[in-house]
Amino acid sequence: MSDMHSQLTDQLHHFHDSKTEQIKSDWFNKVQGNIISVESVKQKALEWFGSSKRNTLHNLDALPNVDLTYGCTDYINNFLAKEKRYQVLEKEYSYYALMGKQKTKVEDLEDNVPVIVSLPNWFYGNTRPDWETLLACCEKKAIDIHIDSAWFTASKDLDIDLSHPNIKSIAFSITKTGFEWNKFGIRLSKQRTIDSITIRNTKPWINSNVINCANFIMDRIDIDYAWNTYEGKYNKLCEELDLTKTNFIHVAKKDGKNVGVANILSKQ
User: Fold this and answer.
1) Domain limits of the chain?
2) φ, ψ at 167 (rounded to 5°)
3) Ramachandran region of residue 74, left (φ > 0), alpha (ψ -120 to 50) or beta?
4) What's the CA gap between 266 and 7, in Å, rounded?
5) Which sign, positive or negative, has the C-alpha torsion 236, 126, 86, 84?
6) In sequence order, what DSSP letters do the residues of 96-152 get, joined into one string?
7) CB 186, CB 172: distance < 8 Å
8) Which are the contacts of 76, defined by CB distance < 8 A and separation ≥ 6?
9) What is the pLDDT along the chain (268 residues), one digit of tens a residue?
């Protein structure tokens, strides 16, 4: 018991286990003969992210424009570079505020200035408790919403309707459940815009190794693999260590603070 307590981490390491490591090893040690087309990977990724039984995405077709990204960090960087003005909420990913942005309460959001949010949210473990208030505020103040869903593959019980008129884009990544070494993701957007991501997809100037590898991964693992495989062990771990459960397979809470449990799960 005390030994497991010592393995809790302040850093929230990504989930991984023997299966994800085997897929990585297979990729690097086996020659892949076929070059996968950008369009086929787009379609496969859209279906793969949309296939979750642990999370529910309503009205994916409300965001019909699909672009491949190098993970959600690529999506965030593109957003920050494109938007001369944007807003960041409280209890959000600190990376959004690297450019000196001050975090803002929902009720203090400025009219007509886009906001970037994380769903699932790293702090709350799911949607923000003020999500409905945020939607109403953004509709009233004409604020575009852009969603970073980097933690989607590590989460459960997320339910989001993408048809809201102010939701303009969302991005998903495979990195949080064992595949941080392959920076692959997709961006769905309501309107086609000209930016670094769309230009890269149009040419296409996409790294063939990245998308071939992503195709390889998606063929070999289900999007809900982490929760489907480790839910019982996660629950038992939290009970034995007196931790509060979250909706992230690699995160629990101890005394109200997020702690990483991925290292322990991977050894179970």
Assistant:
1) 2-24+224-265, 35-218
2) -80, 115
3) alpha
4) 11
5) positive
6) GGTTSPPEE-GGGPPTT--EEEESS-TTTSSS-TTHHHHHHHHHHHT--EEEEETTG
7) yes
8) 95, 96, 116, 148, 171
9) 557 777 788 877 778 888 888 888 888 777 555 678 899 999 999 999 999 999 999 999 999 999 999 999 999 999 999 988 999 999 999 899 877 788 999 999 999 999 999 999 988 888 999 999 999 999 999 999 999 999 999 999 999 999 999 999 999 999 999 999 999 999 999 999 899 999 999 887 888 889 999 999 999 999 999 999 999 999 999 999 999 999 999 999 999 899 999 989 887 6
Q: Which of these, 23, 6, 1, lies nearest to 225 by C-alpha position? A: 23
**Maximal C-alpha separation, the chain:** 55
Q: Which of 83, 93, 81 is nearest to 176 (CA)?
A: 93
35-218 maps to which CATH number? Answer: 3.40.640.10
What strand order describes the sheet that includes 87-89?
65-69, 185-189, 167-173, 145-149, 115-118, 87-89, 103-104
**With contact defined as beta carbons under 8 Å apart, do 181 and 209 qualify?**
no
Q: What residues contact residue 111 under an 8 Å CB cut-off, 6+ apart? A: 141, 142, 143
Token digits of residue 76: 């965030």
What are phi and psi for residue 9, nearest 5 degrees? -125, 140
d(CA 125, CA 156): 9
